[in-house]
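User:
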Amino acid sequence: MTASSGLAVGALPLVAGLVVVCALIWAVRLGIKVRRREAAPPRPEEQPRLPESGPVHEVREVREPDEVPQAHDESERLTPHQLSGGGTSGSKRSEDQTRRRWSRGSGGSFGSGGPGTT
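Assistant: Predicted structure:
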């Protein structure tokens, strides 16, 4: 009886190992089957091309916020649907396109020399 229980204890890891190996083989075959059904990668002639005008570059411009409309009565409150743009903050292109710079040693405020001074 002890010999048969020793045989069963030794065969159990072998059977578990065979189950794991079979599961891995099945998973690899399933992966191959799924890959065959997928579309092929695009060929070089199917890749995106640059526009005729060349690459598109980033445009930097100074924007000014739109003015917030004031309520007719001080006790009245404006709701988002009463604002222009449906409550989203809008902006427009500024006439002065010089970038504002922080002045050195200003302690976090813009320099007194106006926009564009350093």
